[in-house]
Amino acid sequence: MSAIIEIRDYSWQYLNTENPALNGINLDIYEGEFVGIIGPNGAGKTTLALSLDGLIPGQYHGVKQGTVKVMGKEVEAYPRGELQRQVGVVFSDPEAQFTAMTVEDELVFGLENLGLSIPEIRERLEWVTELTALKSLLPKPPYEISGGQKQRVALAAVLAMMPKIMVLDEPTSMLDPVSRKRIFEVLGRLKREQNNTVIVIEHSLENLIPLADRMILLSEGQVALQGPTRTFFQQIALLLEKGIYPPEAMQFFYRLVQRQWYNGDLPLTLDEAAERLEHVLMPRHSTYQGS
Amino acid sequence: MNKTMLGYVPKESPIYAVHPFVKLYFLLIVSLFPMFVAAPEWNFLLLVIILGLMVISRVDIRIVRIYIPVAISMGSIILISYTILGGRHPEFQVVFNLFGLPIYWERIRDALVVYFRILPMIATMVFFLSTSRERDIIVAMRTIRLPFVVTYVFAMALRAAGMVLEDFQIVRQAEQARGFDTTGKPLTYKIRKYIMYMIPLFALSLRRSEEFTNALVARGYAFTGEASRVKRADYILTHYTFKPHDFVFTAIITLAFIALLVARYGFNYFGLDDSWFIRWLYSVLV
Amino acid sequence: MGVIHIVILALLIGIGFVVGAFGSISFPLGFGVNFFWTGIAVQQVGGIWFGGWGVLAGAIFPFFSNAIAGTPFYVSLGYVPANAVQAFLPAWAFRRFKADPRLKSGRDYLILFLSMLVANAFGALWSPLVVLRGFGLLTTESLPLFVWGWFGGNMIAGIVFNFILLKALSPVVIRTPAFVKRWWA
Considering Cα of A46, then A51, then A55, then A57, what sign does the dihedral take? Predict the structure, then answer.
């Protein structure tokens, strides 16, 4: 299986900074994969997202080393505007992504840029508004809707362009828990119904873990850890050391492991945790009489 | 209610049946009318018609109140400019003397002529702003086939203005939270206030320029190169059709303008000599 | 020349629209002439930093800020050349005489001051003489008030803002891809 994104010995240093934001990155991401990227602030996550869409080096001053290939082609080799047809990016601040006066204008902007015909635009608009539940908001100015709705608009605007690869840079960092859940529901549908490659940079691990096929930990501009989601989180000690706090259920089981009360895999979700806890408690429960 | 650039207009307003281009055309052409009309009563009639159109369009007429100070200040400036600062002209008729300064009939008349020209021009602008949404202007510009980049810059500028206003509120609250209050303070203090607002406002806007650019590039927008030459469909325009009544309105505006020019320069109408208002005022003052 | 410059153009029009309207409403002399016009900072600093894009924005935004402040459409249109020159001259002087936007030397300050002086003088002469007189809004005798009003309003606001903005933000701006060294890129 060939990688849709190939990153080799990639380093990027912004102009007038002392250290590279990314330093000797090697990564392969495969078609249809759902990849979660985590890391503390300043680890280089956003720089990586911008590099995948060609915004780096296109829109920033700095020094690049190594290669970032998307679909077998170096990002700089794509003609202007071409790479963005393949890679869509959703940024963390939805407010900063809107340049139009209504939600509808915002959604069709990218489609017009692609040179689609009116019927094609209409069709995609219907599809994406249904997927993201935005139909009722179409005539509204994007800055007058709630934070969660804004981020869904930003997501929909990119989705409508049907890129092969979607990169979401902390898409829920400014949202309340309910809005966060709704964004991940959309991503879940996307994973089930489309065969997109999705890369999500996120701090909200509870929502990310159930969807991610693979996780990558970035730290100080380098890949500190990567692997299939379940294997990845078994390295919880390293994650904690790097300032990553996995879901509390997972941390709870890690403490049980430390106390040698549990020796299985760490559960990834709350449901798994409940199930395993039942197994842990069951023998004791049967003998527990209370006071 | 729908938000317009200057207030709110009910969703049931008949103005929404009018194509945005017609509104822009009205602004551009009707704003010219007063320049060809000297007789104040005709310009006053135009003012009444525009206010009437605002009422028909169900614009909250209270919006006009914002412009009353503007109208008063302009009126005062014109009057002072023409009378007190109008110089000495022995050939003119003196109406009265103000602290030894002669106030001439011709100067009062000219001030009124100018003032009644300005009022409908302001009203046309207010009518346009209070009945148009930002999108209407974009649609009007696209209807006349202005290049996409022009209409898009305009849309972004409107969006940026909204963001600057929001930023301004944030910066102001932040300054106030740190005890920076201008209430009852002298002018120098207020000027200092502006400086303290301007630097963060500029800094925030610079940051936004980076974010905006990333958003545009990420959506495949290119200003130069192959991607910029893509033939763009204009989806937004599919929501707006130029209906028979829009043709009628456009024709009425055009014909009214032509008729005005013919009447003014062909038959010398709308001049001061025909003005009953000026004759009446003359009989009262002189 | 790239997308960022289109964005800068739009943002400057947006900032100028708000800041200019604020000045027009707060300190009016009439017909968009103000005795302290904050918009001048966007016009002149924008031109120095962003070259042609700043000049373009400086010529366009007063049209909108005046409109919202109640200046008739065609009067605002008549001001466009004055506003364009006000934005252009300091930008041109900085490029022609290789002045540093960070105002590193006395020479840089002098170039800024002199270019502001000439630019604002042109604006002050153009608008009251050509536009306001042309529209018959003023008498010849009252022109000096408006000429001095326009000049003073722009000059004072320019002195207050331009120096501080350039000194405080130029070091940041020149590091961004938005900074325009020549005219368009």
Answer: positive
Q: Are B194 and B119 in a shared domain?
A: no
* Domain region containing B180: 147-239
Lowest-pLDDT range, A233-242, A251-260, C132-141? C132-141
SS (H, E, C) chain B: CEEECCEEECCCCHHHHCCHHHHHHHHHHHCCHHHHCCCHHHHHHHHHHHHHHHHHCCCCHHHHHHHHHHHHHHHHHHHHHHCCCCCCCCCCCEEEEECCEEEEHHHHHHHHHHHHHHHHHHHHHHHHHHHCCHHHHHHHHHHCCCCHHHHHHHHHHHHHHHHHHHHHHHHHHHHHHCCCCCCCCCHHHHHHHHHHHHHHHHHHHHHHHHHHHHHHHHCCCCCCCHHHHCCCCCCHHHHCCCCHHHHHHHHHHHHHHHHHHHHHHHCCCCCCCCCHHHHHHHHHHC
pLDDT on residue B148 = 84
Domain spans in chain C, listed from the N-terminal domain onward? 3-173
pTM of the model: 0.80
- Contacts of residue B251, defined as CB under 8 A and 6 or more positions apart, other chains included, come to none
Q: Is the pLDDT of residue A1 over 80?
A: no
Asked if ipTM goes beyond 0.85, one says no
Residue B117 and residue B220 in one domain = no
By DSSP bridging, strand A3-14 and strand A62-70 are antiparallel
Q: Do C177 and A16 touch (CB under 8 A)?
A: no
- What's the token pair of residue C64? 């909108």
User: What's the token pair of residue A270?
Assistant: 């709350």
Can you give the residue ranges of every domain in chain A? 31-54+80-238, 247-283
Choose the mutation target among B148, B212, B217 for the interface with A, i.e. most A CBs under 10 Å: B217
Nearest chain A alpha carbon to B149 = A113
Fold classified for C3-173: Arp2/3 complex 21 kDa subunit ARPC3 (1.10.1760)
Q: Say yes or no for a CB contact (<8 Å) between B222 and A80.
A: yes
CATH no. for A31-54+80-238:
3.40.50.300
Question: Nearest by CB to C1, which of B125, B212, B224?
Answer: B224
Q: Is B207 on the interface with C (CB under 8 A)?
A: no
The two tokens of residue C83 are 């506003």
State whether C177 and A61 contact (CB < 8 Å): yes
Same domain, B124 and B262: yes
Contact state of A88 with B218 under an 8 Å Cβ cutoff: yes
B153-180: pLDDT as tens digits:
888 888 888 778 777 777 777 777 777 6
Under 8 Å between Cβ of A44 and B190:
no
Amino acid A144: pLDDT: 81
Determine whether the interchain pair A118/B233 forms a contact, defined as Cβ–Cβ distance below 8 Å. yes
Name which of B32, B86, B209 is nearest C178 (Cβ-Cβ): B209
Structure tokens at B136: 């209407």
Whether chain A has a CB inside 8 Å of the CB on B212: the answer is: yes
Quick check: C34 and C28 in contact, CB under 8 A? yes
Specify whether B28 is located in the same domain as B74: yes
State the smallest CA–CA distance between residue B66 and chain C in angstroms: 9
List chain A residues with CB under 8 Å of C175. Answer: 15-16, 61
Per-residue model confidence (pLDDT) at position A218: 93
User: What distance in Å separates the CA atoms of residue C64 and residue C55, rounded to the nearest whole number?
Assistant: 15
Number of Cβ pairs < 8 A linking chain A and chain B? 121
Say whether the peptide bond before residue C128 is cis (omega within 30 degrees of 0).
no
Dist. CA A250–CA A59, nearest whole Å: 40
